[in-house]
Design a protein that fits this description.
Structural class: alpha+beta
Number of strands: 21
Enzyme class: transferase
Number of helices: 9
Radius of gyration: 21 Å
Keywords: FAD, Flavoprotein, Magnesium, Metal-binding, Transferase
Organism: Niveispirillum cyanobacteriorum
Strand order of the largest sheet: 6-1-3-4-7-15-16
Protein name: FAD:protein FMN transferase
GO molecular function: metal ion binding; transferase activity
Length: about 400
């Protein structure tokens, strides 16, 4: 499976550069401005687009400009402004880790439409959009009503925060705290963010009867190769169970053989942390997507933020467009990412039976926070459709779209 990310910039008078991954890491900062004279009446030809192909699915993200100059900053989470390097080529191929790192292939397309109507802030700064990476997948941020100098400083803080969160939760970084916990079975003096997310994950696991369970990592490792024999699967199942994790203020401890993955909840958690950071700095209108999108306030034309849900069976087709202002929406697709090289096993596993989930093609869940939407969508996708209502329970979440296999 290949993952390709390409940017097109059709605005007359704009400027930009292609970014690549020399050495397997992102390596460029892109700044692009559309002059006021060039952007007066939005049209289809003037819509910058980002199209990401992940296996057979396409994620389309568009941002329609308002009147005035539009500035877009882009740098990866491990880089900040001032570390610009040129790269060659007309696009970039994501590092191999992204081929299995994303929990879903059919995540929502973040359609940030400023529209051609009357702006909320007709004399204030134009929208600022950042695109980068978070937890091995594409991430984006759109801010409205923020002066560009202020927005640049805030984006720099967001980049630093995402990098710090990856240092806690990423399994693709051997130096992350989660990787160390899996290797050593115990870590002392964990940061508050680490224990906070673990407690939330274990709470959802208990509430869903284990349909969501962060201890399925040993099963993941099994299905990377051949289909496991019954005896091997039985032995691995003996290490799975959310109750095998002990979380205290001064330490986190795993029972022998138990390992964790937070890929079914961490993207949503990072979205919430970024949202909280921006809210604390007075940003009231934004669309934050660090793997799961969450909208605050409104678009530039006064309308709600809208998200398109991709059709799992038709590349480039949107099944439905749903409002996301004041809530988050997460989409899980069991076969969105495939664990093994042969493409037999989907990445969402049913912790109860220890086998890849097959009942859903995809399911989209809305909740007040991206953390909850992420975890509940994972739980529902892992279980039978008939269990959806009971898995939601009193979480306040709701299924907004589901496609049954």
């Amino acid at each position: 499976m290949s993952v390709r990310w390409a940017h097109s910039w059709p605005w007359r008078g704009g400027c930009g550069c292609w970014t690549g991954y020399p050495g397997g890491r992102p390596a460029a900062v892109r700044v692009s401005f559309a002059p006021r004279a060039a952007v007066t009446r939005p049209s289809a030809a003037m819509v910058p687009s980002v199209m990401t192909s992940v296996s057979s699915a396409w994620i389309v993200s568009a941002s329609m400009p308002m009147k005035g100059a539009v500035c877009r900053w882009s740098w990866p989470p491990n880089m900040g402004p001032g570390r610009r390097r040129a790269s060659g080529g007309r696009g970039m191929v994501m590092p191999p880790e992204t081929r299995i790192s994303r929990r879903r292939v059919l995540r929502l397309s973040a359609v940030a439409l400023a529209g051609a109507g009357v702006a909320l802030w007709p004399r204030q700064p134009s929208p600022v959009t950042w695109t980068g990476q978070a937890m091995g997948g594409p991430a984006s941020l759109t801010l409205h009503g923020v002066e560009q100098g202020v927005a640049l400083r805030l984006v720099s803080r967001v980049v630093a925060l995402v990098d710090a969160m990856e240092g806690l939760f990423s399994l693709h970084r051997p130096d992350s705290l989660l990787s160390r916990l899996n290797r050593e079975g115990e870590v002392g003096d964990p940061p508050a963010a680490f224990t906070d997310l673990l407690r939330q994950a274990l709470s959802v696991a208990a509430a869903t009867g284990g349909a969501f369970d962060p201890t399925v990592q040993p099963l993941w490792d099994l299905y990377r190769g051949e289909a496991p024999e019954a005896e091997t699967l039985h032995a691995a199942m003996g290490t799975v169970g959310w109750w095998r994790v002990e979380v205290a203020r001064d330490r986190v401890r795993l029972a022998p053989g138990t390992q964790l993955t937070l890929n079914g909840i961490a993207q949503g958690y990072i979205t919430d942390r970024v949202t909280d950071l921006l809210l604390s700095h007075g940003v009231g209108h934004m669309l934050v997507d660090m793997g799961e999108p969450r909208g605050i306030g409104r678009r530039g034309d006064g309308q709600e933020w809208q998200l398109g849900i991709a059709d799992p069976d038709a590349v480039g087709r949107i099944l439905s467009t749903v409002p996301v202002s004041g809530r988050a929406i997460a989409t899980s697709a069991p076969r969105g990412t495939l664990i093994d090289a042969a493409g037999r096993f989907g990445h969402i596993l049913d912790p109860v039976v220890g086998r890849p989930a097959t009942a859903w093609r995809q399911v989209s869940v809305a909740a007040a926070t991206a953390t909850m939407a992420d975890a509940i969508s994972t739980a529902i996708a892992a279980a039978a459709p008939a269990r959806a209502a009971s898995l939601i329970g009193d979480s306040g979440a709701a299924v907004v779209m589901g496609v049954v296999a």
